[in-house]
Amino acid sequence: MVLKEVMHLVDKGEMLPLMEEFYTIQGEGFHKGTAAYFVRIGGCDVGCHWCDVKESWNAETHPPTKISKIVANAANYSDTIVVTGGEPLTWDMKPLTVALKEKGLKTHVETSGAYRLTGVWDWICLSPKKNKLPVGEVYNKADELKVIVYNKHDLIFAEEQAEKVGENCILYLQPEWSVRDKVTPLIVDYVMKNPKWKVSLQTHKYLNIP
């Protein structure tokens, strides 16, 4: 397949820059502790300095892969598919999610919301970032809001973001892993004073699994 044709299929969402895919236990947020198949899509320009998957940023380093192959692999492992990144909404997610739904699979996405919401989703985890805020309808569509806390100022940001989501959106504060010993007590104290929030931990890292 020639490069021009590949890029056309990527632009249409019929091929995606696949970084990795794996079956594991969801470690964060509402569905923590449940089995899921993760599809990590390359490409992200949000640029969080504490990102623990910086190798996902450059989409050109990850091979464009036909969504039919991604779907076939996913269907072998789980009925819940989590699409993450990178920033998956960099690309058109409709073809992938429609194909997953045709297999009877549940579709979850983890996104910063920095790009227009595309795709058919059963669950949307919105994790907004200060340097590239969410756009469009993702605030109203989000099932959970997960704010990463690196310092106390992130709690102010969290409240600003919480005002924009729907009333049924579940609110989470999650310590950034590299400073967890410092910020976890801060989060615990904040949640006890503001019980609309819940604590989210990266339990997969404590379990030493992907």
UniProtKB/TrEMBL annotation:
Q: How is the cofactor bound?
A: Binds 1 S-adenosyl-L-methionine per subunit. Binds 1 [4Fe-4S] cluster. The cluster is coordinated with 3 cysteines and an exchangeable S-adenosyl-L-methionine.
InterPro entries according to UniProt: 7-CO-7-deazaguanine_synth-like (IPR024924), Aldolase_TIM (IPR013785), rSAM (IPR007197), rSAM_sf (IPR058240)
The cofactors named for this UniProt entry are:
S-adenosyl-L-methionine; [4Fe-4S] cluster; Mg(2+)
Query: Record-annotated residues binding [4Fe-4S] cluster?
Result: 44, 48, 51
Report whether 4Fe-4S shows up as a keyword of the record. yes
Q: What is its EC number?
A: 4.3.99.3
- Record: residues binding S-adenosyl-L-methionine: 50-52, 86, 127-129
User: Under which pathway is this protein filed?
Assistant: Purine metabolism; 7-cyano-7-deazaguanine biosynthesis
Q: Which residues form a coiled coil?
A: none
Show the HAMAP family listed in the entry.
QueE
Subunit note: Homodimer.
Family, per entry:
Belongs to the radical SAM superfamily. 7-carboxy-7-deazaguanine synthase family.
Q: What is this protein called?
A: 7-carboxy-7-deazaguanine synthase
Q: State the organism's lineage.
A: Bacteria, Pseudomonadati, Bacteroidota, Flavobacteriia, Flavobacteriales
